[in-house]
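Protein: Trehalose-phosphatase
Species: Phytophthora rubi
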Amino acid sequence: MPLPPKTVLIVVNVLPLVFERNEASASGWDVSWATGAIAMLYRTLVKDADKYSPLFIGCPEVFVAKSEEAALEKQLLALRCVPVFLDPPVAHRYFQGFCKGVLWPVFHNVVDVYNSAELQLDCEDKKKRHAWLGGKKDESSGVKSAWCDPVSWNPAAQDMCWSDYCSVNRTFARRVVESYHDGDLVWLHDFHFLMLPSYLLRRLRTAIVTMYLHVPFPSSEIFRCLAMRTEILRAMLCADHIGFLIFEHARHFLTSCKRLLGLDYKTCPNGMLVMEYNGRKIHISCSHVEPDVTHLHEMLDQNQADANGAALDFAEHVKNAITAGRDPTQHRLVIGSVDRVEGLTAIPLKLRAFDRFLATHPEKRGSVVLVQIGIALDSRPNDYHRTREYVLKFTEEINRRYAPPGGVVVYFEEKRKTTCAERVILWHRSFGIMIVSEFSAYSRILSGSLAVNPWKTDDMAAAFAKACSMSYYEKHNRFYMNYKFLVGRSDATPWGERLLADIEAVTDKTQDASSGEVVQVGFGFDFRVMRFESGFVSLDVDDLVKKSTNASRRLFILDYGGTLSSTASILDEEGAQYSYRGECADQVLQTFDVSDRYGGECTVQSAARYIDGKVRKPISDETRANLKTLCADPCNIVFVTSNTQRAALETQFGSIPNLNLIAENGLFIRKAGKGDWECVCDDDKRTFDWKDDAKRVMRAYAARTNGSFLVENAASLLYDYRNSDQEYGEIQSLELCAQLRHIVESGEATINRAKGYVEVHQSGVSKAVAVSLVLKVLKEQVDVPEFVLVVGDDESDEKVFQAVHAFAENEPKLEHVVTCTVGKKPSSAKCYVDNITDILTALHAIGVRLRLTRSRIRLFQQPRTYCRQFLKLKCLVSKEFLQSLDREMRSLSMLSNGSTTVTLSPDTDELLCPHEAASANWAALGAAVLAGCVLGAVAASQRHRVLRRFFT
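Structure follows.
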């Protein structure tokens, strides 16, 4: 049994219908399908009735009284149309005010700073300021006084129109939701609905939403001038697919996302581009709209006298006008053009070029006629009237100078709209050469046309001359080159249906829903949807306290920065006090003296944080008390991990008894009660000679990239470019990695390039390795913990989460593992908290419960408690561990053929093999590394997967 056709909700600004007043009708209106070019495009998007069933959602082209809305809606539903009724003032501010006044010029890369509108303060007369915003929609809306100038750079008017633009998008969203059924497709057309995907995603989680922009997307430098730039981008990225006419428009969109949101994209095997945003994948495609050739041929072949009598009359009228005053037997060449009467179509520039063409080619004055059909607009009346004045003035002057008596060389006529029939009948069965602006999208699509710069009059005049003198064969070849490209596939699947099929193929919401969970984040314009791994939930403090209380062996691994303490801006009063107390002003000035830029040392707490504009706050007294409570329990082993240097950790945590520390990204470990730090690297066999050369190169790049800086640790160097220009920073980071691969010897250090930074650190050194060592020691020499809590907030903590999960998979004694990240974001952790306060509250709750439930039996057996057994160990980093790690590093060096060791991809957590020749040995390399002491407790079947995640 065949499946029913899938409904496609086609959302357009104006329904492709014609409304005529008829008092005898139940609704008061006669409604029929429109025959305009845009209307025909929408009507022919999907034609396969067995596969798709279109349902149009949009506004009527007329304003309807409230009393007529119900009857008219019923009448439109019979035509598969759902009307959206808007109040006239709101509709005008939405369309003329924001769509045409703000978005239209900006999206066409038109910048007019302050010259197009009179700026006023908020305290000025609002009635005078907004008098034009509520005009009445009728024939008078096209007069000069009905509307003021575009509001692109008028903040007061722009804010009011923006509010109505969002309000109309919400109204459309309600109508879409009312009409939607499971499995339907939602197709949004053009820039009128940039905010609509956000409103739809809030209520239709499983709907496939695609958006197609028929207008260009502006350059990022122009788009960033919009006050609501970020809100628009985030809303657009709530769609599952975004379509553009050509790649240039898509490239501008991708660049804006890169510079404003820090997002990257990658290619797909199906030819689309993919951008990941908050765990969701947005597909981006570039495809031109194809005309419905079958419909056009039907208009040519069938008898048009009755159906399109007006079109035939129009064609005859034009023919009589251009032959007046001329010899009827003389051959004439007609240059025809149909354009909107507005500045962006450059009709005055075309007339200037035609005037120069006639002046420089007097032999053509009697045989060439320019027929210019202008479409009158009321959406931008000032622009329309200004352009119309130029056109009438130039037309009159050119005809006065070059036209024969009673005739014209330029024929200009205005129409409210033109139909496909008028255009086809006017120039049917006569192929000609196309002259297009090189700024037009179709100059990239129609390779058989003559592309010109409309601002260069001589080039346009030369194009007219070349078109007039072109041979028949060249015209024929150029015409059919364009024709075949445009309609080459029209006999197969229509363009709209192909696009929908591609979108359905790459956007499987059912499969995505089973592979993760979708969570709403933010409110208002900050609303977005994030996709997480299944089981990612908010931390349940009560459940956490219960699990920890019931366990007799507990391990706490807590990150320092961003988890136990927050940061403050050095420009704020609080941050300035912390930065001044933490170091003397002379040291800061010395570190950042421009004359000493290449010689000064950069430390994490001083230089790096100062360049970043932030300083880490010291832990609060409450946090210190909570840590002391946890460490005082004999069944607890507590570790604090950090990338910070040892001295900074000792300053903050040295006074807390029984607290263990992991410093400098896992290079050093210190057990409680011991003043000595243990290094996971054997100093006799492993040196840091690579640091000097690497630091020299990274400093040079930091000096040449504005906004970047270098952070130095004992075992690592970090080049941070998150505050620099995103595109330039990416280019510089790629070049830096290439330079470092030639400098750093294989097996000594690892180069890791991630989003916003490039890190070079000692091979085999990371917080994940240090935590894995602790777990291994506990398993072999003490006992496996029953409860483990791991809390962190950054990318290095993600690898710790993965290592602990891998360890727990093969340890039945480990009953409860709680991994928690600070902040709601895609993570390898199973839980999240919103901020630092929440995790401190959870630690306080655990401490209070442990004090209340500590039994006398546990106190009596205190000498044999979990913590004391761990502290009795002489050392954590054994010689066997160092020897095993050294063997794995040498093995890594030999397998990598002299190249840099393991490297992470900037877009994924997958390993990148430095040379293709070594790819065959990559799986064996992963198993070899993890076979040693780094993750000795992990099962062999899991080792390679763990290596891919955290070893680098």
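Remarks: The mean pLDDT is 76.
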